[in-house]
Amino acid sequence: MIDDRLPLALEKIEISSDGIIAVMHPAIDANLSALPKERILIVSPLATICAHFEAQGYRVTAKVSELARFTASVVCLTRARAETKALLAVAMNQTDGIILIDGQKTDGANSILKALRSRVNVGGSISKSHGKVFWCDGGSDFKDWAVGPALQKCGFWTAAGVFSADGVDPASALLIEALPHSITGRVADLGAGWGYLSAHILTRAAVVEVHLVEAHDMALQCARHNVLDHRASFHWVDAIKWAPSNKMDAVIMNPPFHTGRSVDPTLGRSFITASARLLKPQGMLWMVANRHLPYEKTLMAHFSKVVDLGGNARFKVLRAERPK
Questions:
Q1: Model-level pTM?
Q2: How high is the pLDDT of residue 262?
Q3: Quick one: pLDDT band at residue 179, thresholds 50, 70, 90?
Q4: How far is Cα 188 from Cα 54, in angstroms, rounded to an integer?
Q5: What is the pLDDT of residues 297-309, one digit of tens each?
Q6: Rounded distance between C-alpha atoms, residue 278 and residue 84, angstroms
Q7: Alpha-carbon span 223 to 214, nearest angstrom
Q8: What is the DSSP string of 115-134?
Q9: In what order do the strands lie in the sheet with 131-137?
Q10: What is the enclosing helix (H) or strand (E) of 96?
Q11: Coil, strand, or helix at residue 227?
């Protein structure tokens, strides 16, 4: 964890005594006490992480202004190599001093270290707690590593680091097949991602509003490319905490079920609980999930009727009616 490696690195390097220190994509449980809090800017596309650090008194932002300059940067590796390279491109371009790169070996620390060494002088490297921290000076041209939203062969815009970045998720495609054309009124797409479900639900003329609720800023940026209908609204917020002014007629979702690399069914259960809170008394929830995930008990606790609409060997499609 960065908690173990960051203090060791700071013993070997010198950071200017003033200026902003950007900390890019830290984990929600990252301990940054080795750095001066008043100088830190947390950069994360996740509304959940930004809210967490903001509550602790940190400055936060979803994305870096092109005009911002940093005395130093800390880049935390992500699971997506292309996303990590894009972060490093930003750090290299906008950091006047040293850049620290930290991450677990399972997140490609060795691979990124090797790639950096082929282009710049890496000042040092420390291995600890199944990961590495290493450092180099900012200012080098890494524009070829910079990537953002792009139009894919599937016809939709996606970006590195967002869910199903390579194309349409098969579970979402299965849910689309099950959704009736009779859906009307206000619809919420919880965990909307880059907007695949919303784009399809907006083909229904009787739908008057679709709210794309998504915690990942980059995914929502992609959704704005993919969903151009005037009936769509975009909300960068944790779906579990979203509180609209009006109740919904329907909720659609393919909820997340991972925390890091670990399967975490409590995420999906929380989405179900949120759906029941958001719906009108006669409202309906339509969802798809991996077949092994135990959601039925939670659905029955929060809805008067639950219907298994089938699916395939990998996924199940469920409809829940009349929230309790």
A1: 0.94
A2: 62
A3: very high
A4: 27
A5: 999 999 999 999 9
A6: 36
A7: 10
A8: HHHTTS---EEEEETTEEEE
A9: 59-61, 40-43, 21-24, 72-76, 98-104, 131-137, 124-128
A10: none
A11: coil
> Helix crossing, 109-117 with 81-94: angle to 10°?
50
Is the distance from CB of 198 to CB of 175 less than 8 angstroms?
no
A 10 A CB-CB count for 90 gives 22
Tokens 């007629």 correspond to what residue?
249
Rounded to 5 degrees, φ, ψ at 323 are -60, 140
User: Which residue carries 């490696």 as its tokens?
Assistant: 5
Q: How many helices (H) and strands (E) does the chain have?
A: 9, 18
Residue tagged 């809090």 (tokens): 37
Output DSSP code: residue 170: H
CB 53 within 8 A of CB 42: yes
Q: How far, in Å, CA of 192 to CA of 213, rounded?
A: 6
- At residue 275, the 3 state secondary structure works out as helix
Please tell me the distance from the alpha carbon of residue 96 to that of residue 123, in angstroms, as a whole number.
Answer: 15
315 vs 2: CA distance, rounded Å = 36
d(Cα 127, Cα 301) in Å, to the nearest integer?
47
Q: Which residues contact 85 (CB under 8 A, 6 or more apart)?
A: 112, 115, 142, 145, 147
Instruction: Give all domains of the chain, ordered by start, each with its CATH number.
Output: 2-145 (3.40.50.150), 150-323 (3.40.50.150)
Residue 278 is inside which H or E element, if any? helix 265-278
Residue 8's pLDDT band, with cuts at 50, 70 and 90, is very high
3-class DSSP state of 162: coil
**Could you tell me the two tokens for 62?**
């979803």
pLDDT reported for residue 1: 83
Q: Give the Cα separation of 264 and 290 in Å (integer).
A: 12
